[in-house]
Amino acid sequence: MLEFSYFALSTFILLLLLFGNYKLVNLARNSGTGKTYKTPNIAGIIVLWLLYLSALSFSGLLKDYSLPPRFPLLVFLPFAFWTTLFYIRNKNNPIFERLPLQWTTFFQSFRIAVELLLLFTYYKGIIPVEATFEGYNFDILMGISAVLIGFVFANKVARYKRLLVFWNGIGILMVLIVAFIVGTSVYKSELWGYDRPTVSTAFFSLPYLLIPGFLAPAAIFVHVVSFLQIRQKAN
Questions:
Q1: pLDDT of res. 33
Q2: CA atoms in the 13 A half-sphere facing the CB of 134
Q3: Which H, E and C letters describe the chain, residue by residue?
Q4: Predicted local distance difference test score (pLDDT) of residue 26
Q5: Share above pLDDT 70 across residues of the chain, in percent, rounded to a whole number
Q6: Has residue 5 got a pLDDT over 90?
Q7: Per-residue confidence band for 34, with pLDDT thresholds at 50, 70 and 90
Q8: How many CB atoms lie within 10 A of CB 101?
Q9: Structural contact between residues 138 and 174, judged by C-beta atoms closer than 8 angstroms
Q10: Alpha carbon distance 124, 126 (integer Å)
Q11: For residues 226 and 198, what is the distance between their CA atoms, to the nearest angstrom?
């Protein structure tokens, strides 16, 4: 049941991202201004990324805990590079002004489900308690606050620009904190009072790989899209 929940949530988030890409393309085509807007091929990148994660899972490379660390090199760095490039190429793209900020804000509420998955993954003995909201993972607060931010502030960007920028920045930081907890639980478990890695190698293969490899990056990527929206709407 837990494994099915990983696939079900990931499929739902994939469909939301593909729908968002579809809306961007439609907004560009039906701008009504006679202008031609550049639309990034988000859908193609997502599909390729999932295929890449599948290949990594089946290869077993991420299960090797020897140095250099495989996950940061093979997953985090490629994602960080592409996301940075995406922001640089689109920071002046007016198409993001036409995409409602409420959509990308409400999107972050899916993190409530992610935190519940992490909790049950801990109960199964795959990750340590420190990586859940029973430990030092407070990311569930971002999922809860996304509803409030979306309803109250996201449609008033000019007035609440600083708050929205701060909230999205904290959202990225929260994901990185969880990544730090998991990473140190593998390579520096003594920081948490253990004498061996407390993250099972199963966490770095499907379906568990979907949280660190797809769902967490999806949260960061949508925060980056929100930054683009705020930048355009506040000008």
A1: 47
A2: 11
A3: CHHHHHHHHHHHHHHHHHHHHHHHHHHHHCCCCCCCCCCCCHHHHHHHHHHHHHHHHHHCHHHCCCCCCHHHHHHHHHHHHHHHHHHHHHCCCHHHHHCCHHHHHHHHHHHHHHHHHHHHHHHCCCCCHHHCCCCCCCCHHHHHHHHHHHHHCCCCHHHHHHHHHHHHHHHHHHHHHHHHHHHHHHHCHHHHCCCCCCCCHHHHCCCCCHHHHHHHHHHHHHHHHHHHHHHHHCC
A4: 78
A5: 94
A6: yes
A7: very low
A8: 24
A9: yes
A10: 6
A11: 34
- Residue (of 24, 13, 22) closest to 49 by Cα position: 13
Mean pLDDT of the chain: 91
The pTM for the full model equals 0.93
Q: How many residues does the chain have?
A: 235
Instruction: Write down the pLDDT at residue 40.
Output: 63
